[in-house]
User: What shape does this take?
Amino acid sequence: MKLYANTVRGVVNAIDEIFNQQQYADKVIERTLKSNKKWGARDRGFIAESVYEMVRWWRLINEVSPSDDPYHLFATYWVMQGNALPPWEEFQNIHVDRVKSRYEALDSRAILQSIPDWMDEMGSELLGDQWEEEINALNEQAEVVLRVNTLKTSREALMNRLQEDGVDTYAPRGYRDALVLGKRQNIFRNPAFKEGLYEIQDASSQLVAAALDVEPGMRVIDACAGSGGKSLHIASLMQNKGRVLSMDIEEWKLKNTKLRARRNGIGIIETRTIEGSKTIKRLQQSADRLLLDVPCSGMGVLRRNPDTKWKLSPESIANVRTIQQDIIQSYSGMVKPGGLMVYATCSILPTENEYQVKEFLETEQGKSFELVEEQKVLAHESGFDGFYIAKLKRK
Ligand SMILES: C[S@@+](CC[C@H](N)C(=O)[O-])C[C@H]1O[C@@H](n2cnc3c(N)ncnc32)[C@H](O)[C@@H]1O
Assistant: This one.
């Protein structure tokens, strides 16, 4: 594959912003792509993919050929992909044979999987034999998955409509509203997206709203709704009848929820910012269904957000665990007796998942709940993101 100076410069500048100015990879890529209108689909694809892959393999690249120069690191990445380097001045100090021999001599799993040592130790301790395959799967590129908005169309009709636009998709088994893109592309630009016929949502994430067993007419609370991915799905499953209260501590995220609901043709979502414990107390025993899609480490979605590897720490995971237990303790009272609560994370760590649910069930508040079902979704088994979904019933 031929390299072009201006797209490689785009990659190198983005890498500099991500690692030297501590910016989020997705935001940097978005800004970079907007910065040059002349880049076509192929250039944009090259930049986005190269930046994501360099972020994913950052530790490995730096171990194989350490340098402060982002051009040098790009060249290392490029050679490790099995590509030839053009004779550019920026690449003069790269010794291709040395890169290859250092790469072949590595035998540490943490380095080869390009993760911090602490993460490898934690994963191995908590997941045992499954860890190796799981981290391998979490280092693959994520598929692009759509969730069909069944309020406006059917999976088959959307599949045909997209095919007319040259977008090939397939319907994965076991996920009733999901369509997977045959080829990675910018699907936000498609008119069908603007018409609200689909949302981008991983197949594992689509299992969360489904676990709530909602029916039209119910009162549902989505207490950590964020920008509303699950709220939209819940409202579709309720056929836009009943009420969904989408709450979060971040007001700006709920504004996105409202915008997305309008595009999806949904009228039953109401949003409410959580100002403090009073907001929750006022809603005691008011919900037939409660979703707690709690903040988490994101260890199940490393494919999508590879920079999470470099942002997490054992301390940040301990902090988020405290928040998760606080949320389940203080929000669970919003479910009516006989109602269902779903606790979900996009993490594969048992410490954020089944251990939290077990701890909750052993407390005074947890005594009035029973565990109905739990799904531990691992990336290497499902082929999609890692998730945890526990369904609990209030007695
Ligand atoms: C995993 S994200 C939710 C994603 C969202 N449900 C979706 O499907 O797009 C977790 C959310 O919890 C919110 N959050 C953090 N602490 C919270 C708290 N104490 N109460 C409610 N929401 C909280 C965060 O702002 C974040 O939006």
Remarks:
- The radius of gyration is 23 Å.
- The chain has a mean pLDDT of 96.
- The chain is about 45% helix and 15% strand.
- The first helix runs from residue 5 to 20.
